[in-house]
Amino acid sequence: MKFNFKFINSKIISRFSQKNICFFLTILFVTFTEVSSYPVPKLERRVMDHAGILSEATVNQLESNLKQFEAETSNQIAVYITPNLQGETIEDVSMEIFDEWKLGQKSKNNGVLLIIAPTERKMRIAVGRGLEGALTDIQAKQIIRNELRPGFQSGDMDGGVTAGVNAIMAAIRGEYAPSEDDVATTGNSSEEEVFSSGLVGGIFTLISLIVPSIGGVIFTIIGLLVLFPFLTFLFGSTFGLIVAVLLFLLVMFLKRKIGIGNGGGSDGGYFGGGGWSSGGDSWSSGSDSWSGGGGDSAGGGSSGDW
């Protein structure tokens, strides 16, 4: 009785390869989930003070002013004060919150997020794509330096936040101009780093196509990890994660098609049916509940401390 050892070996290698793909795909999911691990709270109102640094009167006044501003201009401004950043940078946290809350109207991307972390003494003004011309990085930097920081340093959190919010609204209306000494934005160096990571990550991912077996999978994961900041810059953290996973699956599919590192298995077995949804894009500005309108941010704005 003769056994087809070649067939058995091919089947074993194919199953082993599929198990490895599932294993590394799981690692990829876990890794990227860790990158976006900040527990974003549910958006309930325009001013959310989860650190308890503002008086109730200030919160109510800011809420009223921002509601009126939104009714007049359609621009959405949210203020979020977090107890702590959970070990993440304020830039990453602001992007995760902006992506989740979808501040601004979907057709205009006219949202702004002022986030403050008193534990780390950090703050950031994150600006939606549609308002980057009205509220520039230079203006956001000046508002942090001249309006928010002085109040925080003197212990007047109510006054600092109120001055900052008023300046943000004034800038959007064209009534707040940067001074001549505010000549550099905070985004230039970070953008260069993002594009550099995109280039290096793309090269690693392309090289992974010609690296056989497990080494190719490892190269793919490394490439996508390096590429992820660039994907986040382009699509936001949520969609960036989705694109990264889709790229991983595409690379694995191409490796099987060109016959590298798969032991000669069949073309199928990696992809099942499915899809994703970005959720509803409803926009509400009622007094009892409030939600974003589907807007997003490309990472514009400025950060600071006190």
TrEMBL record:
Spans traversing the lipid bilayer: 199-226, 233-254
Compositional bias ranges of the Low complexity kind: 279-290
InterPro entries linked: TPM_dom
Keyword Cytoplasm in annotation: no
Region Disordered, residue ranges: 279-306
Keywords, in A-Z order: Membrane, Transmembrane, Transmembrane helix
Segments forming domain TPM: 47-170
Pfam families named among the record's database cross-references: TPM_phosphatase
Compositionally biased spans, kind Gly residues: 291-306
Record's protein name: YgcG family protein
Natural source organism: Leptospira bandrabouensis
